[in-house]
Structure formats: structure tokens, C-alpha cells
Amino acid sequence: MLTNGPAKRVTICVGEDVHHHGEALYMAVLNFLFYRGVAGATVTKGIAGFGADHKLHTNRILRLAENLPMRIEFVEAAEKVDELLPTLYELAGAGIVDVQDTMVIKAPSVATPPELPHVALRGHAKLMRVYFSENDRWHGKPLYQAITESLRANDLAGATVYRGIYGYGAHRRFHKEKTLTRAHDLPIMLAVVDEEVKIRNYLPLLDDMVQEGLVVISDVEVIRYTHRVQAEEIR
Predict the structure, then answer these.
(1) Number of other residues whose CB lies within 10 A of the CB of residue 33
(2) Burial of residue 168, with CB atoms counted within 10 A of its CB: 0-12 exposed, 13-18 middle, 19 or more buried
(3) Distance between alpha carbon 142 and the CA centroid of its chain, in Å?
(4) In the chain, what are the domain boundaries?
(5) Across residues 80-98, what is the average pLDDT?
(6) Thinking of the domain 123-222, which architecture would CATH place it in?
(7) 100 phi, psi to nearest 5 deg
(8) Structure pTM?
(9) Phi first, then psi: what are they for 92, rounded to 5°?
């Protein structure tokens, strides 16, 4: 947790067009920091600059595809920064990571998520299903999106979101998909499979995010867990 006193300021500079697992790299970094309990982070966009390739990038109207510099900056306790840096180095790739000493005069109060071990998924595991409404939000985001991003940031094996077409919950009110209108209060079911220790360690975070809903955990056996080989992995 960030407190008043000595701390570290971390700045990460990457290109706007650089991606990580299908999303903009600066957003991947921001999500990682967000779901690792960092007190706060800011992303700013440069209007001109150059990097290791020594190629000048600008935001001139007729050159919208330029790879403009993106800057992610946050302040945290030295121990927290040491914990985050290995992943930040890996995410930044050819970008720049800069760490400087600073002094916090007034710090916010932030809860730190539990540290989760990274283990292989095989054999006996747990299936967690979370039921809630499509209307539910967390910090301004759709709840299903926030939970999915949080699961990925906390290194759970994977998650799938299902959108219901008909159902009811604790209020005994039916929710159904309407053909000619865009319904926003349909039931959502999010499913996660991983080892029990990782599911259990994640529950405090989930409890904070789901204000009204149902969470159930079942025993499962993982027969096969794999992923497609991406082009960048085989180059």
C-alpha cells in the first residue's frame, strides 16, 4: 500500500501501435497495474517523438497511422515496484522503463490484492461460475469486462462470459431478450476453471466487485488445457 514517505516513480514509454495479446500495449500495462492494486496510474499521449528506430513520429492530421509515443506513469512503494518490475520489463519489450526516487506527501488508501502463485492447470480443479446482470458496473466498466480483465491480470487460466436470453434472479423479475429493442438487463454467467488455490485467493477481489449476484464453485477434472500457437510465438 502506498503511504506517505519515500517511494518510487515509474515511467513506461511505448509506441501507440504496439500490441500485446491483441490489445494496445499501453492498455495492457494499465490493466496490469489496475488489477495489481497500484494506487493510481496515468496514460498520456505524445504529439511527436522518436525511439530506438530513430524514426520521427508526429500527430499531423494527414498521418493518423503514426506510432506516437504513449507514457504510463505511476507512483508506488519501493517494495511494490520491485514486485511489479519483472512483468513490466517483459511487457515493455523495446520500450523504456524509468524508475526514480520520489517523496509522497499525501497518499490515497488502496487495498492490495493477494499475491497469486502461477501453477500449471491439470487434473482436479475448480469451476467457478458467477451470475449477475448485464447492467452491473464496477468503476464505470461493465462488470463482466472488469472481472474478465481482473482474472487475466491475476493470472487465472481463462474465463468465458455467457449472455442469457431469458432468466430471473433474487428479485424474481424476468429478464428477456427483445427482438426490436436493445435490452441491457439480461442475465450474465461468467465461468472460470483453475486450481483451487488460485480460485480461493481470487474470491476477496470478486467479493468486492460483485455487489449483487451469485457465485458457485464446483469440482471438475481438467482433461486437456492448451492454446493456439500465435504467429509471434513461433518467429
Answers:
(1) 22
(2) exposed
(3) 13
(4) 5-104, 123-222
(5) 92
(6) 2-Layer Sandwich (3.30)
(7) -130, 150
(8) 0.51
(9) -65, -30
Three-state secondary structure string covering the chain: CCCCEEEEEEEEEEECCCEECCEEHHHHHHHHHHHCCCCCEEEEECCEEECCCCCEEECCCCCCCCCCEEEEEEEECHHHHHHHHHHHHHHHCCCEEEEEEEEECCCCCCCCCCCCCCCCCCEEEEEEEEEEECCCEECCEEHHHHHHHHHHHCCCCCEEEEECCEEECCCCCEEECCCCCCCCCCEEEEEEEECHHHHHHHHHHHHHHCCCCEEEEEEEEECCCCCCCCHHHHC
Q: Do residues 74 and 102 lie in contact, with contact meaning Cβ atoms separated by under 8 Å?
A: no
Alpha-carbon distances, residue 89 vs 62, 68, 83, 110 (angstroms) = 33, 20, 11, 24
pLDDT band at 161 (very low <50, low <70, confident <90, very high): very high
Burial state string for 98-114 with b = 16 or more CB within 10 A and e = fewer than 16: eeeeeebeebeeeeebe
Cα separation, 124 vs 50, whole angstroms: 50
Helix axes 25-35, 143-153, angle to 10 degrees: 90
Q: What is the CA radius of gyration of the chain?
A: 21
Question: What's the mean pLDDT in 191-204?
Answer: 92
Domain 5-104 has CATH 3.40.630.30: no
> 129 with 220: CB under 8 angstroms?
no
- Higher pLDDT among residues 110 and 44, named by residue: 44
**How confident is the model at residue 170, as a pLDDT?**
54
